[in-house]
Structure formats: structure tokens, C-alpha cells
Design goal:
The chain is α/β, with parallel strands linked by helices and 441 residues long. It contains 14 helices and 13 strands. It has an eight-stranded parallel β-barrel with strand order 1-2-3-4-9-10-11-13, surrounded by eight helices. Strands 5-6 form a two-stranded antiparallel sheet. Strands 7-8 form a two-stranded antiparallel sheet. Helix 1 crosses helix 2 and helix 6 crosses helix 7. Bound molecules: flavin mononucleotide. InterPro entries: Diverse_substr_monoxygenases, Luciferase-like_dom, Luciferase-like_sf, NTA_MOA.
Length: 441
């Protein structure tokens, strides 16, 4: 029995991760706007002792709405608002939301996550993204998205402003002493006075320091500047990796960068996404997968691929021919590289490629029995490819139930996953230290 435990995040989407999830007979197509659906998913994940639930986010209607389908869910709540509701109906599980640095103000973001951390008793986490598309830029007074390097440079400054604001009050600033009339101690209040290249923020933040000190900082870009940002600032990194060897290389790469910032390897948890398609037998799992694949409409599959591979129009190419040479995208560079690598390595046509990534947009899909899934997770965890995983159910709610009832008990029997929560905050679950206040260090 090994003593190290893996972390598990339940990466939730309205009907599930598969592109055709909403069309599956047992999926809830209206899930994106159904609070009871999300409540059930969150409580199921909590029953499974997951570290966190996690929501992605985009700031535009993505894909090709003229096809009458979305390529990324378009009927969903704002994740921070949804998590505020879910905080009230859960007790232990972490609550992680994606929020973009490119189309937000640091002050507003710092305040919202601090609020979620307070109202959940220290369970919040922020997945920092820089956004990916011109469609998003068009909603914020710009014609084009920021250049890739620029938006990471803005993100570097943004995160420093946010953490600075979270330190506005020392932990013991609020004494609320009725007899003396001192509500908080003024010498424990600090004004940030940030004057940077992209942001000017005076501070202080109008909310006390949070239960976790800082909400857990997560980063999900895997390009060079993405990895540099993660190594300097993040405590968890989400990533899409197709193969064990690529995941091991990524793991060694980001962990190896930490020393350069005076950090230790255990201060950053690497969590690739895995989409498990689970059946009682191998053939049942394969049938389930095929049923989903058969529901992918070619034009929707192609639109999803075109969007994820950098926003290039692929409609003029033969679906049964190879993926053309593509220039480097200003969008998701690491994902584009993953798609091109996959197409070349497996010699896939455009059609085969979009079908291959329809399940989880480039994350690794594992099809099999609970034992097969548990074996893969163990192999990646023990093989230093991952400290944990974002579990991406193909369709919901069934996919999460199958994992919690089938795979979690196996991981627990093998000593790879907790059987009970030992702490109450997301930092406790992940084994991350609470950061001290910079003014007290
Ligand atoms: C698990 C996971 C979740 C992500 N969620 C989002 C998201 O919700 N919104 C978004 O704009 N990008 C999301 N991304 C994409 C990255 O954050 C990043 O924007 C993208 O990979 C481009 O960065 P890169 O060029 O550094 O790879 C996600 C990536 C991963 C691995």
C-alpha cells in the first residue's frame, strides 16, 4: 500500500464533456440551466471525497451557432455565481472556477474570489486563464484578442495585484471590540498602491483576508509562457496530455522550473484531465463510447476541431484527407500543438481527428471497466505523470455516478485515494500550505 494520495477534481459541464453528450438518451440536455442537476453532481462528487468540483468558462458563445448546436456549452450559468449557490448545499468539497485575466479587473476578481472563500469556509480556487479567442475580444471593446505573449505578461501582473489585494488586511485585523469601539486595527490594514504597466490599483480590498489566505491558484495554459506563469505563481496546473510519456515530460518540465522561483516540487500539483468511459465489461464501455461517437454531426465535429486547433477555417479541406499545415495560432497554443502532434503521430484524417477529440477536446480518454480506469490512473500517478486528475465524465449525471461508485472504491482499496476528508479547506484536501500575509513575513 502506498501512502501518497492522488487528488481528484470533478470537471463538470452541463450535459457532459463529449461533444454529443446532450444527445445521449440518458444525458440531461437541459442540465446547464438546472441548479438541481448541479447540486446532485456536487453532492455526488462530495460523496466520492473529490478534492473539488471545477467549471470552465468562456466569455462568448463559442463555435458555430448557425449549426444549431454549440461546440462548447452555451446554455450555462456564470460559474462563480453557480459555485456561490453550490457552496450552500455542500460542506467539504472545493469549488473551483475559471476566470479570465484578459477581460476582468483585478480588484473585481480579488473581491469575488475572496467572497466565495469566506462564504464557503475556505473552499475556493481560481483557474486563471487568459482567454483564447477573438470572439471573446469582440465582447469587450476590442477587435482582436491580445497577442499571446502580451496576455501572459498582463496575467503575470494581474496575479500579483490580486494576491497583493488579498493581503490588504492581516489575518487578525478584525477584533470587533464592542467595549473599546475598535472594529479593526488600522496598523493591520495595508494599501497596495500598485502602479504597473497594465494596471493601476490603489487598494485596499474591501473584504478581510480569507480563510485560506489566498484561494487556491490554478493555471491551465501549457505553452511556454503558461508554464512559466504556473511555475512562478500556481499551486495546481491543469493540463491536457494524450500519452503517458507526454504527461511525464510535462510533469518533469513544470516541476523542474519551480526551483528557479525558490519553490519546492510539492508546492505545485499537476492534474491532467482524463475522460473515463465506464462499462461493466470492456465491450459495454466500447458500445457506450461508440453510441456517443455516432451522435457527432460532421459539421459540428469539424467546427469544434477548427476552433480548438487555432480558429482556422477547415471547411475547404477533404474530411478524409490529412490535417493541413497550420500556422501557429494566437489562441490555445499548447492545445493546437497537441492536435497537430496527434494527427501526425497516428496519421489521422480530419474526420478521424475530430472524432478522436470529440470526447474530451484533447484530454486523454480511457474506455473500459472501473478496473481499467483505476489501472490507468495508478500508472500515471505512480509513474510521475500526475499528482491527481481532473475527471471529465462523458455524459451526466451517469458518468460521475459510474466513477464514484465504480472507480473511487478501487482507488481507495489500493491506498491511492482518501476514504474521508481530513480537513475542511481546499488547501487541506490538496495538501497545500496556507500562504502568510506578505506584510507579516
Ligand atoms: C483543464 C483545462 C481547462 C481549461 N479551461 C479553460 C476555460 O475554461 N477557459 C479558457 O479560456 N481556457 C481554458 N483552458 C485553456 C487554457 O487555460 C489556455 O487558455 C490555453 O491552453 C491557451 O494557453 P496556452 O497557449 O498557454 O496553451 C483550459 C485548459 C485546461 C487544460
Amino acid at each position: 500500500m502506498t501512502t501518497a494520495k492522488m487528488s481528484l477534481g470533478a470537471f463538470l459541464m452541463s450535459s457532459g464533456h463529449h461533444l454529443a453528450a446532450w444527445r445521449h438518451p440518458r444525458a440531461w440536455a437541459g442540465g446547464g440551466l438546472d441548479f438541481q442537476h448541479f447540486k446532485k453532481l456536487a453532492t455526488t462528487a462530495e460523496r466520492g471525497k473529490f478534492d473539488a468540483i471545477f467549471f470552465a468558462d468562456n466569455l462568448a458563445l463559442m463555435g458555430s451557432p448557425e449549426l444549431g448546436q454549440f461546440t462548447t456549452a452555451g446554455d450555462v450559468f456564470d460559474p462563480l455565481v453557480l459555485l456561490s449557490g453550490l457552496a450552500a448545499v455542500t460542506e467539504r468539497i472545493g469549488l473551483v472556477s475559471t476566470v479570465s485575466t484578459s477581460y476582468n479587473e483585478p480588484y473585481l476578481l480579488a473581491r469575488k474570489f475572496a467572497s466565495l472563500d469566506h462564504l464557503s469556509g475556505g473552499r475556493s480556487g481560481w483557474n486563471l486563464v487568459t482567454s483564447a479567442t477573438d470572439l471573446e475580444a469582440l465582447n469587450f471593446g476590442r477587435d482582436k484578442h491580445f497577442e499571446h505573449g502580451d496576455r501572459y505578461q498582463r496575467a503575470e501582473e494581474f496575479i500579483d495585484v490580486v494576491t497583493g489585494l488579498w493581503d490588504s488586511f492581516e489575518d487578525d485585523a478584525f477584533i470587533r471590540d464592542k467595549s473599546s469601539g475598535v472594529f479593526f486595527q488600522p496598523d493591520k490594514l495595508h494599501v497596495l498602491n500598485h502602479h504597473g504597466e497594465n494596471y493601476r490599483v490603489r487598494g485596499p480590498l474591501n473584504i478581510p483576508r480569507t480563510p485560506q489566505g489566498y484561494p487556491v491558484l490554478i493555471q491551465a495554459g501549457s505553452s511556454e509562457p503558461g508554464k512559466a506563469l504556473a511555475a512562478r505563481t500556481a499551486e495546481v496546473v491543469f493540463t491536457a496530455q494524450q500519452t503517458l510519456s507526454n504527461a511525464q515530460a510535462f510533469y518533469a518540465d513544470v516541476k523542474g522550473r519551480l526551483a528557479g522561483y525558490g519553490r519546492r516540487p510539492e508546492q505545485l500539483k499537476v492534474m491532467p484531465g482524463i475522460s473515463p468511459v465506464i462499462g461493466r465489461t470492456q465491450s459495454e464501455a466500447e458500445d457506450k463510447y461508440q453510441q456517443l461517437q455516432d451522435l457527432v454531426e460532421p459539421r459540428v465535429g469539424l467546427a469544434m476541431l477548427a476552433g480548438m486547433a487555432g480558429g482556422f477555417d477547415l471547411s475547404e479541406y477533404d474530411l478524409d484527407g490529412p490535417l493541413p499545415e497550420l500556422p501557429q495560432s494566437n489562441s490555445m497554443q499548447s492545445r493546437q500543438a497537441l492536435f497537430i502532434d496527434l494527427a501526425r503521430r497516428e496519421n489521422l484524417t480530419i474526420r478521424q481527428l475530430y472524432l478522436k477529440v470529440a470526447g474530451a477536446r484533447g484530454h486523454h480518454t480511457v474506455i473500459g471497466t472501473p478496473k481499467t480506469i483505476a489501472d490507468t490512473l495508478e500508472e500515471w500517478f505512480v509513474g510521475q505523470a500526475a499528482d491527481g486528475f481532473n475527471i471529465m465524465p462523458p455524459f451526466l449525471p451517469e458518468g460521475l455516478d459510474d466513477f464514484v461508485d465504480g472507480v473511487v472504491p478501487l482507488l481507495q482499496q489500493r491506498g491511492l485515494f482518501r476514504t474521508e476528508y481530513s480537513g475542511s479547506t481546499l488547501r487541506d484536501h490538496l495538501g497545500l500550505q496556507r500562504p502568510g500575509n506578505r506584510y507579516q513575513r
